[in-house]
Design brief:
Helix content: 25-40%
Structural class: alpha+beta
Bound molecules: dinuclear copper ion
Largest sheet: 5 strands, mixed
Number of strands: 12
Strand order of the largest sheet: 3-2-1-5-8
Shape: elongated
């Protein structure tokens, strides 16, 4: 296995070793038994008749129950472990990942953009909010040292989380064959100390840029969102956007969901798809009217309004 740079990676390795060991044990035991039986019970002369054995309840119970328990155990530890890449703590550092043919772009909370490497602080929960450019193709974010791999799609956000526990530089791959220069989507993950990360954020040679929240605030005003959506909690023509993220929404058709990036994105681009209970479907779709960066900004801004 490649070098492990997180606790999660160690868990994945443990499960992998467990499955391998169980498989090796079974194949060795079965092969030895088979060879032993072939010699022990071979037909020694023409007169011998093979005894007719129908079944053995005890034996069949044992070889059904034990493998079932082993398989359920493997499923259970796999599920519990995988869940850790889904249940990312709320205080995690959020970094946006944009994939396109054929490169990655990482946007840090202060707006710093980097395409050469992903720099993260050590021993800190990281949440990656990932998307491929609109009309691009499917990519897949893969860091072998962290044992994480997650598809990055052009139509909605996907997430993954990790907590690197070892400083160093690791490989990032695109794990989905995405066209001619797929192999160029090689990149580095650099895990550094918190101080080094803070310094890294201050280095703005990428050019002065607004933070995603500032981009969103500007766009919110430009697009006139505030005419219908209050930020203070009072409903207008549209529902208030105050403290919306992570809350439950109820729709006209009675369905519900917890507000996440994908819901916000859909509601901006195609507002009539889900209409909040008690409101009229009057908002105009913003499909084609906002860039990927403006959309990302709007979502970051709405998340910040509490
Ligand atoms: Cu992107 Cu392969």
């Amino acid at each position: 296995m490649p070098e492990a740079a997180s606790e999660y990676a160690n868990e994945v390795d443990w499960i992998n070793n467990f499955i391998t060991n169980v498989s090796v044990f079974c194949i060795v035991a079965i092969t030895l038994a088979m060879l032993y039986f072939a010699v022990r019970y071979r037909r020694k002369d023409d007169g011998r008749k093979t005894p007719y054995i129908t079944h053995s309840v005890a034996l069949e119970t044992v070889w059904t129950v034990i493998p079932t328990i082993v398989v359920i155990y493997v499923f259970y530890i796999g599920l519990v472990s995988y869940q850790k890449t889904r249940d990312i703590p709320a205080n995690a550092l959020e970094i946006n990942v944009l994939a396109y043919s054929w490169a990655w772009q990482f946007t840090h909370p202060n707006g710093k953009k980097a395409g050469d490497e992903l720099v993260v602080p050590v021993n800190k929960d990281i949440r990656l909010v990932m998307k491929a450019k609109q009309d691009d193709v499917l990519h897949s974010f893969f860091v072998p040292a962290l044992r994480i791999k997650e598809d990055v799609r052009p139509d909605d956000y996907s997430y993954t989380g990790f907590k690197a526990n070892k400083e160093g530089t690791y490989r990032i791959f695109c794990a989905e064959y995405c066209g001619l220069n797929h192999s160029q989507m090689l990149n580095s993950l650099r895990v550094v100390s918190q101080e080094e990360y803070d310094d890294y954020l201050l280095d703005r040679t990428d050019g002065p840029a607004l933070t995603p929240v500032q981009v969103g605030k500007k766009q919110f005003a430009t697009s006139g969102c505030v005419q219908c959506h209050s930020l203070e909690g009072k409903a207008g023509i549209g529902p208030s956007l105050n403290g919306l993220f992570g809350k439950e929404r109820v729709f006209e058709d009675g369905t519900k969901l917890i507000v996440d990036e994908n819901y916000l994105r859909e509601s901006i681009l195609y507002p009539k798809k889900k209409v909040v209970k008690g409101f009229a479907p009057v908002m105009n779709p913003f499909e084609g009217l906002v860039t990927e960066e403006q959309l990302e900004g709007l979502i970051a801004y709405i998340k910040s309004v509490k």
